[in-house]
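Please check these two lines:
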Amino acid sequence: MTDVSLERWRLILGEPAAGCLGGLGGESAQRDAALEWLYGRDEELGRRDIRRDRGSGPSQLTTVDWLDGITRLFPKETIERLQRDAVERYQIDDIVTDPGVLERIEPNPALLRAVLRTKHLMNPEVLRLARRLVEAVVRELMERLATEVRQTFTGARSRRASRFKQARDFDARRTIRANLGNYRPDEQRIYVQTPYFSSRTRRELSPWQVILVVDQSGSMLSSVIHSAVTAACLWGLPGVRTHLIAFDTQVVDLTSDVSDPVELLMKTRLGGGTDIARAVRYAAQLVEQPRRAIVAVVSDFFEGGSEAVLVRTVRELVEQGTLVLGLAALDEQADPAYDRDCAQRLADAGAWVGAMTPGELAAFVAERVGR
């Protein structure tokens, strides 16, 4: 089925319309399944002897699966309507109205994502329970990532020579380069006369700004979560000042909440349009010492604003000496889905574009601040 209007009618009417309008495939079939999960329980359809479903077996979708699915398959306005119908029309209590579910369920990242998507629909009691769930999952992420970040920064080396000759600080590359004149071809050995050691950067770090600019669109939810946790882990490290900026078509500076990722996530608004250029322009205004700043833009790069302004702003940042990262994903899987054409234009303007795990981002920052 290729006619968009016919496909929409098919989704509205369900399986009974297949004989006239044809079948569905790909994401359209997934949309139909999501609509059937919700609206197929309508008692009025049974009284009128109408079925939306394609079979008599029970649905295998869980509520969390359904929430994940509609976020991927529908625009923001439709998602909000589906969630509202689920709560108000069909009383699917385990989404937002049944505190017992949140009390019994095991905290996990998938449920955290579901809570963040629906928190605007929760009553105060459920919101309080949901916050405890968010705290549990974030605490686990913090413990895991904080250890990784500390190890990364402990091991970051500067280019300064060290007076302390410890094996762990041995600079093999510089030592080999400096002693190449002592190479004996017949023995295939280099005799080291002068070993070199590098100091490790800790409290002696020169100050750097790390500005995380995070897309709040629904498809970036995992990256939003890990950006909040990463910013909290970077916060307070010697030599690093962290900023966190969230955006859709508006820009919100969340730096004051960086040290509390739970509070930060509970304030996050998911969905809406995307104006990356506006957010990057705001970040550019925060830069104090261009050659001591990293601007990391976490987005899928589907620009709803002016792509020309975005590219020009990135180029200006790069030309003044600021490191610009374009991260198509920032989570444990680092599995990106993004606008490759826009990302390529940013790379041509001088940005580093790719996908990273939070640990890889920490390593990138540590390597730069250690210079």
In short: The longest strand covers residues 208-215. Residues 54-58, 201-205 have pLDDT under 50 and may be disordered. DSSP finds 17 helices and ten strands in the chain.
